Hints:
The protein is 58% helix and 5% strand. By secondary structure, it is mainly alpha-helical. The protein has 3 domains: 98 residues, Fumarase C, Chain B, domain 1 (Orthogonal Bundle), CATH 1.10.275.10; 234 residues, Up-down Bundle (Fumarase C, Chain A, domain 2), CATH 1.20.200; 78 residues, Fumarase/aspartase (C-terminal domain) (Ribonucleotide Reductase Protein R1, domain 1, Orthogonal Bundle).
Amino acid sequence: MAAPVHPSSAPHDDAAGLRGQPLSPLDGRYRPAVDGLGAFLSEAGLNRARVHVEVEWLIFLTDNGLFGTTRLTEDQSRSLRATVTGFGAADIAELAEFEATTRHDVKAVEYYVRRRLDALGLGAIAELTHFAATSEDVNNLAYAITVQQAVREVWRPAFVDVLEKLRALAVQHRAAPMLARTHGQPATPTTMGKELAVFAHRLDRQLARLDSQDYLGKFNGATGTYAAHLSAGPDLDWPELSRRFVTSLGLEWNPLTTQIESHDWQAELYGTLVHIGRILHNLCTDVWTYISLGYFRQIPVAGATGSSTMPHKVNPIRFENAEANLELSAAVLESLASTLVTSRLQRDLTDSTTQRNIGVGLGHSLLALDNIGRGLGEIALAPDVLAADLDRNWEVLAEAIQTVIRAEVTAGRSTIANPYELLKELTRGRRVDSAALAEFVGGLDLTDEAKARLTALTPEGYAGLADALVDVIRRD
């Protein structure tokens, strides 16, 4: 008797109509939040950048009059560059046709550009297309251009938006006293603004690192030796020409490589993005905890459902979603960083596969930023909850009392022995109210001035310089 076929192992003919649907949620459910990256980090974006590099190399060669060429006219250069600015669906399809024959993506780009030269009446310079270049000369520049654009034009603005929202919340709540927690236990009070300012300051430092990031490129031939270049133009300073060309694309020139650009700048960049993501992850877990404590109330969104069965709930989904996406982003970007810095001898194809996932790593990070930005805009401080929490924990003033006693003993104004142990006996593991503390202070061997200072203390007023420290992040 044949074993029954489990439904999950049966042929999925009934699902045939779903084939072709997006496999990644970044291209499906979350597409609107990450769509801006597609212009740069998609396969089409990469191909457009490859065309850009090939076109600019042609113009560079003719601008320098190499091999008997003359500078293109302004109209010719403009028409040739329009191949890049006008790159669209028809061009994507045309490149796909070329690649179906060549089985080589960069060679397909070369043939595509050659066809454009013929159409523009520039067939006389066709042999300068991809001149003396290996595929990686084009690829490394194309990736550097697209990653730079994606970070600067899409990811960075989203990050700065989150940073500015965080900065605004910190300034807004700079003086809002709050019970701090160390090891999850009541600790010396702070302010909500100061705690949020810590995150803003951390992220601000990382933004400066991001803005100082180099995006490197090389253009030196099949093994990084300019051998083909010299065979065609032995009297030319090819390293200098390479430097000028690479920097003309808005990149930093890498003067010494194998066949590939070494990808160290990518590892550095992804390391910075991962570190930023970890700080943001910490922000999410702290805000989530503040929400669970009732310090922040979530502002209900009209029509939104918090729970499928519990109508009262407003779940902190923005911060939870961000946490998960930051973890996914870190996994991808860390894998990229560790893989890309190694290549067998001159070249292997591990980087070709790996770099096609740059958009995945940045996409999950961008989605996290979208959620954090929305989440920060959907919370409101609950001062009453903060005040009640402080009022339940007068024992946190034990720190202040024992510190004042130490100062008084040192100054010769008190003879109290072991003040820390004295306060530990009074407060450790116990709740102490204002009356009990006042009675305790009143019985201490202290000057009247010290007693008055301590008696006037409240948990709400024991936040030190927390309010003023927020000025570290002020921009006005």
